[in-house]
Amino acid sequence: xxxxxxxxxxxxxxxxxxxxxxxxxxxxxxxxxxxxxxxxxxxxxxxxxxxxxxxxxxxxxxxxxxxxxxxxxxxxxxxxxxxxxxxxxxxxxxxx
Length: 96
Prior knowledge:
96 residues, alpha+beta, 3 strands
């Protein structure tokens, strides 16, 4: 998967999108992932900062995170579905 911005890993080009496609029946488990004050995933995008809809799921991902936080959220998603965080590989291309 190619993504231009780290936040794209949580939205349309998402790690979450891949899990949604594979696990449509239980993908709603991502709704349990949350911070101290806010949810990371929701069925109501209006309640989120910079929401991106995950295709064909009815679920939105909050994308207002630093690059490190995006990777942390991706690790949480893949671990929630029984994968190891080592399975996530992100290559960063230097465009300069």
